[in-house]
Write a structure and sequence with these properties.
It is built from nine helices and 21 strands. With 369 residues, it is α/β, with parallel strands linked by helices. The strands form four sheets. Strands 1, 2, 9, 10, 11, 12, 13, 20 and 21 form a nine-stranded mixed beta sheet that branches. The longest helix has 20 residues, at 62-81. The two termini are 31 Å apart. The relative contact order is 0.20. Bound molecules: flavin-adenine dinucleotide. Residues 10-16, 33-36, 40-44, 46-50, 52, 172-173, 204-208, 212, 232, 272, 314-316, 348-354 line the site of flavin-adenine dinucleotide.
Length: 369
């Protein structure tokens, strides 16, 4: 079977859904093809659900720009659409004097990114706000928040459908071919394979983005960055959380350090740590617990290890490997790779949830030429 479509978005994660909604609101006919049997089953449901302020990313980078713009759009969208969220705030803590320089750098970088609301806290002020936390200094970020990401994705999907678009599940994009007037995709579903002829493909396949781009015959391999992946584990804290805000240590190589986040029900979780891996495998390794206990006790000395329960894992789709090099988001359109009808999203790790509405607007802008 063969079908002619206008726009296909590959992947129904939070970014794919936001992109599909933006394209549909811009008047395009949009179909999302997703290999799983529902939306948001991969990275979009395996993250910290934090609305990031935009503190950590190099000024001018796509991560910095889309995080800050996305944060404002996301708060406005949540308020307008009644999506559960809270501007709960976070404290980044220095647990030794040697870490204070890192906080100073964070404050300066944040200001350069347009996040000018970070405030210093003394050790006593941290104690007064968060009695369970030990720190020598802190930086409070009032614009950091938390969101119910499932309701957010459901709302994006509702908007897409109201604008005439659709998401089709159990549909795996296997390969494709660049043509004169677009792309022909081969899609495997429950009833066998079909070809889909479309004017525009947005590759928002997350961990699968390189594989999708690499399977498009005629697409230049030089414009597909290497994929590097790093797993992160979360342990939940049973019982009442002893925190009122999110608590972050200073960042580590590849991640933001084993931090505390709270969900909207008030449950605390610790994570994610960072381990570079070769294959996507979400198995939980409980042997990590002693390392978590050690990392957490730097800022939460009263931790009772018996309250730490295995939670879940998530895998970061990175385009820079171990060693601390910064990997930015890639939103590659025809002006970047020379192929009309293809927009590739690579390296959409954190803060992709926060940035999703802003990334979506950028894709719609590229699609509009
Ligand atoms: C541990 C961790 C913590 C994070 N914490 C935060 C946070 O607190 N705040 C924040 O802003 N961001 C956070 N992020 C980042 C955020 O979760 C991601 O940027 C975002 O979820 C990416 O969404 P996506 O739609 O690009 O990818 P995904 O959610 O992975 O969606 C991609 C989809 O494509 C589908 N797919 C793949 N290949 C194919 C194919 N061939 N055919 C059809 N479908 C295909 C997959 O099944 C999947 O559903 C975190 C990420 C990780 C890993």
């Amino acid at each position: 079977m063969s079908e002619r479509l206008d726009c296909v978005v590959v992947g129904a994660g939070v970014v794919g859904l936001a992109v599909a909604r933006a394209l549909a609101l811009a008047g395009r006919e949009v179909t999302v093809l997703e290999r799983a049997d529902s939306f948001g089953t991969e990275t979009s449901s395996r993250n910290s659900e934090v609305i990031h302020a935009g503190i950590y990313y190099p000024p001018g980078s796509l991560k910095a720009r889309h995080c800050v713009a996305g944060k404002h759009k996301l708060y406005a969208y949540c308020e307008e659409r009644g999506i559960p969220h809270r501007r709960i705030g976070k404290i980044i803590v220095a647990t030794s004097d040697g870490q204070i320089a890192r906080l100073e750098a964070d404050k300066e970088r944040a200001a350069a990114n347009g996040v000018g609301d970070l405030e210093w806290l003394s050790a006593d002020e941290v104690k007064a706000m968060e009695p369970a936390v030990r720190a020598v200094r802190g930086l409070v970020s009032p614009s950091t928040g938390i969101i119910d990401s499932h309701t957010y994705m459901l709302t994006l999907l509702g908007d897409l459908e109201n604008a005439g678009g659709q998401a089709v599940y159990r549909s795996t994009v296997e390969n494709g071919r660049i043509t004169e007037d677009g792309v022909v995709l081969r899609v495997a579903g429950d009833d066998g394979a079909m070809t889909v002829d479309c004017a525009l493909v947005v590759n928002s396949a997350g961990l699968g983005a390189q594989a999708v781009a690499g399977a498009l015959e005629g697409f230049p391999a030089a414009h597909i960055p290497a994929r590097h992946i790093a797993i992160g584990h979360y342990f939940t804290l049973s019982g009442k959380a002893p925190f009122n805000r999110l608590i972050y240590p200073v960042p580590e190589d590849g991640g933001l350090g084993v931090h505390v986040t709270l969900d909207l029900a008030g449950q605390a979780k610790f994570g994610p740590d960072v381990t570079w891996i070769d294959e996507v495998d979400y198995s939980f390794d409980e042997r990590r617990k002693p390392r978590f206990v050690e990392a957490i006790r730097h800022y939460y000395p009263g931790l009772d290890p018996d309250r730490l329960q295995p939670g879940y894992t998530g895998i970061r789709p990175k385009i820079a490997g171990p060693g601390g090099a910064f990997g930015d988001f890639r939103i590659d359109g025809p002006a970047d790779h020379g192929v009309p009808g293809v927009i590739n999203l690579f390296g959409i790790e954190s803060p992709g949830l926060t940035a999703s509405l802003s990334i979506a607007d950028r894709v719609a802008e590229i699609a509009a030429g």
